[in-house]
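Narrative summary of target 7.
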Amino acid sequence: EEPVLLAELKPGRPQRYDWKSSCETWSVAFSPDGAWFAWSQGHCVVKLIPWPLEEAELCKASERKGRGGKAEARSRGAAKEKTLECGQIVWGLAFSACPVAEGTEPSCAVGLPCLILATGLNDGQIKVWEVQTGHLLFSLLGHQDVVRDLSFAPNGSLILVSASRDKTLRVWDLSRDGRSVWGRRQVQVLSGHVQWVYCCSISPDCSMLCSVAGEKSALLWSMRSYTLIRRLEGHQSSVVSCDFSPDSALLVTASYDACVIMWDPYTGEQLRTLRHVPLHSAVDYSSEVHTSSLRSVCFSPEGLYLATVADDRLLRIWALELRSPVAFAPMTNGLCCMYFPHGGFIATGTRDGHVQFWTAPRVLSSLKHLCRKALRTFLTTYQVLALPIPRKLKEFLTYRTF
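Modeled conformation, tokenized:
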């Protein structure tokens, strides 16, 4: 089933321009519970939208959306759309994995027990916002250039990693009080890249961090010691995007070489390469530019699909066990993509500042995959290989057979 365009959001004000950026939507994000959506609306502005969208906000909606989404939005009552004035071009967005505790007021005064949004800005600042109120909590200072991407630890520890054009990654602990010397929120500076860092991703088990830059290799770091584990060599051009599978057993990287490589992050082994073959019937290839250069890759929530956005004006959806896409959708100037946390659709950001929402295949995971996912959540590849079980079962559990 091909993806269907459900909705499209457009910037609500004229955009400003400078030499670093025009009005691109470089980042989109869903909160972990799926209750909020954020997008960098061109320059200096972030829109925080309660989910699901009101029908009046949609530029285009399919009949599939129906009336249910509107009724559900009304039922929440208190959730209101917010506009965050960041004062600088916004490049990266990330929601924390720290929800409001039941029975308490959503206050961030002590220990940040609320949902927060971090925004990476053009001048190297990271501004941290309380989602429920839209209030600015504090700013993180340290980067010397654009903060291109952000990633929160999924365990709710309020550890934040930022990736910057200053060629470094920085690790922050937002649970610390930033007012005293001993409470400084910056934990570590990670140096190892020689080009702008484009993307960073923390594994769901919070043991590893992957970062990619304008280089042919991806770097894998330990989130326990903040040291470099290994370089992943295999791409032929700049690597621009990365993501871990929900069980942390797989890592995917996307490159301007038009390939996605699937890795075992524990061993560094290349498991599969997905090549973006041009579809001449869908695209005009009169330009000499390599139009299949990848921009973004992400895993689906259950870990059975991948979505990719490339310069050939296509959104592709891949099944984990296949080497060819299972679905395509035509889109222009795509820059980023992200699955809804509960599955069913994908949000994409475009170079003209728009956000589009697409249907995505819904799948009922097999019992085999659910067992593999449960085991791999707490077992490394080496631990699986050490188990006294048949070889074929080991191959399945380590994704050597899909």
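The helical segments are 68-76, 367-376, 381-385, 391-397.
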